[in-house]
Amino acid sequence: MKKMIANLASREKRVAVLENGVLRKLEIMPPQKRSTVGNIYLGKVTKVLPGMDAAFIDYGAEKNGFLHRDEIPSFQLTKKSDGKASIGQFVRQGEKLLVQVTRDETGTKGAKLTGLIEFSTESLVYIHGIDYVGVSKKFKNEDLQKRWRETAMQHKNPDEGLIVRTSMENESESVFLDRLTGLRELHKGLEVKAASLKAPSLLYERDAYLDMIISEMSGTANGELAIDDFEAYRELKKWIQENRKEWEISHVSGTKNIFSEWNVEAQVEKMAKKIVWLDNGGYLIFEETEAFTVIDVNSGKFTGKVAKEATLFAVNQAAAKEVARQLRLRNISGIILIDFINMDQSRHKQEIIEIVKKEAVRDEKRIQVIGFTELGILQMTRKRTSPSLSEMTTVSCPVCSGSGKIESPETVAFRLERELLEHRKTDDEAVWVEVSKAVADVLLGEKESYRPALEELIAKKIFLSFIPGLTNAYSIKRFGSIQEIGRASSEGRELL
């Protein structure tokens, strides 16, 4: 049974989805990095780029958003949708227009925007600015599917797109019309509001965490939801009753962290680690970069009891299933390269592809499995709409600038030595350097055995003081006489 744990009582919102006690999905929404996907703004065109068939839009964020020509209503509603019309025919610099965020800012890239404004309900999706009708392929009755397509075509306007969802299958036409009217009025209200505002302005803000919870409940007939925020509890309980869902909802008001109480916290902590262990003793290593994510599969402690090829295949099978789960948990998107353990038999490679595709069906993000390269790397993509968990919860290391590595004590010490050598011909008698302990040990040698030679080489006595911490660094404070530097370096500093 599906179970959701919603930790909404603090400023950072967290929602966990579990199946049989195992964490399958996690949404973390820090207040400073809250997703803007679904938000609608009155934006202003700052630059039109004919060569890219796109425009940059100032919608109030730090970075301007990116709007492609194909996402502009005037392009979609003309007969020029053959891909040859220039974007300059549809927007101009300085123009104001309604835009909706479809992908959050990531790294150095601004948000991706659309002018095709979309509102979704459990049974109907309304899109303004495109002439389109779609009906869910999950309808059990083909006749009803055909009837709903005809009904949608009959009642929609030329500038509207409608998608009829599965839950509408057994509803009446009057229910359809009521929901369509409500969505039309919502869009019309935004247009009226926009007319009185200056660009950029926020027109509509999506309640991301409540939407996420409702979306999860909509996709499953029943389940359990535990939540620690009373207002959200009341709102979701009302939704469950109105939509006749069989979900059990409970409000948790104790002092203990709800994630700890439901044994979720420990599983969440594991997601911050680069290494993920498999049940059979193998393990995965995750390396995220701005361009793509690389996942390395290793056999680890697993030796198996059969032939080598079968043993490696067993590790890869387990890895394929866990990779799919981790991609969803960590919200890793974009280009993904998986280095499975080398398999000689092509049928084994095909079976791995099938496993990944089967697991991908459970993911709400669109996944495309490309296949294995000549070097045995599985290529796939996962649609990016929001930052990964790593991007949401970490910052670049101030020491290593995000590389995961820092300069060695040797590198820093020899750089300091070269800099001191540049002053060997000055008249100063001494130099004071603030330095980390590891760098000082390299600079002066074991038990300061190299100090006499170095001081003779630079023609100066060296006074060192200690910089606390793990950073390999130094700072040349000043040059002067031995008496002057000795006094200055000892004031408030521990001498080495």
Protein model, in words:
The protein is of the alpha+beta class and 496 residues long. The chain is 31% helix and 28% strand. It contains 14 helices and 24 strands. It has helices at 73-76, 142-155, 173-195, 208-218, 230-242, 258-261, 265-270, 308-330, 346-360, 389-393, 409-421, 437-444, 451-458, 482-490; strands spanning 2-7, 13-19, 22-29, 40-49, 54-58, 65-68, 96-103, 112-114, 117-120, 124-128, 132-135, 160-164, 201-204, 222-227, 246-251, 275-277, 283-288, 292-298, 334-339, 367-372, 377-382, 430-436, 461-467, 474-480. The strands form five sheets. A six-stranded mixed β-sheet has the order 16-17-18-19-21-20, with helices on one face. The chain is globular. It starts with a strand and ends in a 6-residue tail after the last helix. Mean pLDDT is 89; it is low at 492-496.
Summarize the structure.
With 496 residues, the protein is of the alpha+beta class. It contains 14 helices and 24 strands.
Determine the fraction of residues in helical runs and give it as a percent range. Answer: 25-40%
Work out the number of β strands: 24
Low-pLDDT stretches: 492-496
Mean pLDDT: 89
Biggest sheet: strands side by side, in what order?
Answer: 16-17-18-19-21-20
* Tally of alpha and pi helices: 14
Q: What is the gyration radius calculated from CA atoms?
A: 30 Å
Strand content: 25-35%
Shape field: globular
Give the tags.
496 residues, 28% strand, disordered C terminus, 6-stranded mixed beta sheet, alpha+beta
